[in-house]
Amino acid sequence: AQRRTVDLSATDSMDGTPTGKGDDGKKEKTEDEAVQLRRTIGLLPAMCLIIGTVVGSGIFIAPKGVLANSGGSVGLSLLVWVLCGVLSLLGAMCYAELGTTFTKSGGHYIYLLETLGPLPAFLRLWIEGLFIRPAVSCTVALAFGRYVVEPFFTPCAAPIELIKLVSLLGLTFVVAINCWSVTLASRTQVALTFLKMFALVLIIVPGGIALAKGKTKSFQNGFEVDSSTLDMLPLAFYNGLYAYGGWFYLNYITEEVRNPNRNLPLAIICSIVTVTVCYVLVNVAYFTAMTPAELLLSEAVAVTFANRALHGMASVVPFLVALSCLGALNGGIFGSPRMLLVGAREGHWPTIFSMIHIRRRTPLPAVLILYPLMVLMLVTGDIYQLINFVSFSRWLFIALATLGMILHRYRFPDYVRPFKVPVAVAVTFTVVCFFIVGLSLYSDPWNTGKSCALTLSGIPVYYVTVYRYRLPRSLRRVFGESGLQILLEVTQQEVQTY
């Protein structure tokens, strides 16, 4: 078969303008040699990226938060888990349409840019790069550290300093993998996904056996709630939706997915259905071994379950849960830098972050900028406060993206959409998201208010750095094509991948 070639002489000037080609003697590169992010993600790696990112620390942390904000009601908490799965499926279908309509990587950012304009897109980029991704990674890393350290100190409490140290080591390991090789990061994700599914099966099967034996005490009078519970219900949904968070990560890397018109919708929908079934069964299993009060007192729910239901394999579960958290951490750090890369490519982020390593073919600058921010947030912050803090901005922009999809359909009815969801699905999902976001300001005004304020803080930054470029020359040189580019050995992509 013929090898396609890329003529680099046509864009060899510093500003990317054409300089002519053919007779200047410059060497043509094959497509394999050109610096680019390649389409290496097939259907199985795509599903593993979604499942591996969704099934992380959430199912081992969030049950406590869901139950607490459901007034201790087992039935209501299980209903929240089901509804969160359904809502995530509706959202996943909307994002399958967005991902096949707009073929660039970047997820939420690129969809907001294409449908609602540059300001909402920049705000999504701003809050993702500086707050959401570091906070989410910090939460998952802390869960990883807790499940690694906790078994060695049972029944005593593990030192928080040691937990944070182990969390930092896990975070550093994942960042290093994603800086080193896209293929290695992808294969690591596949391996960790199979291990974490084994961990879920290890919880579900004993729970099913216990249920068959009649251990249903926790489910009796399961829907007894008082009126005050309804005020906290949005926070229960936030905790549940946090556990489902990650179904949109494949949209971050659309340009690296093989046959995205087929694989992207198929991977997204199949993954979310699988995760929803597993999550509900895992929570049912938890309640066969623990009362609601005992679950609320547990610092590590899966460990408590293992000690009671898996006597011979109790020591294995914390290890598997830690690997599950590591997989979620890897999936997030694999996907999010692509949003920063695309934002820089569109002129909304410093140019250096649109570059990739000339040999490793990884978005090295975009990955590295997240590391110090994640470490900083790892040192401070409570897990459940971080969940509420992150969820407000994340779900606000998801709602805006699907609203933009509806408006785009209305304005451009003839636009090619390889995958199209019923308009009722898009409208339902968008309305529910806005409803939850609005109620959260009432339920937890402090954390959601901070998240809202930090999101809005990007408005003056946008007008200074993008709308009317006013940055000093010295700052431009730091993040431009200068010594930093040489130091990191990075360059712009030599092939258009969208």
From TrEMBL:
The cross-references to Gene3D superfamilies, in alphabetical order and at most eight, read: Amino acid/polyamine transporter I
Positions of the region Disordered? 1-31
* Location in the cell: Membrane
Specify the domain of life of the species encoding this protein.
Eukaryota
GO CC terms:
membrane
Under InterPro entries, the record lists: AA/rel_permease1, AminoAcid_Transporter
Annotated membrane topology: Multi-pass membrane protein
Residue ranges, compositional bias (Basic and acidic residues): 21-31
A single MF term (Gene Ontology): L-amino acid transmembrane transporter activity
Give the keywords, sorted: Membrane, Transmembrane, Transmembrane helix
Q: Keyword Cytoplasm on this protein?
A: no
Is Transmembrane tagged as a keyword? yes
Coarsely, its chief localization is: membrane
The transmembrane residues are 41-62, 74-96, 162-182, 194-212, 232-252, 264-289, 309-329, 362-380, 386-407, 419-442, 448-467
Recorded protein name is Si:ch73-352p4.8
Q: What is the phylogenetic placement of the source species in the record?
A: Eukaryota, Metazoa, Chordata, Craniata, Vertebrata
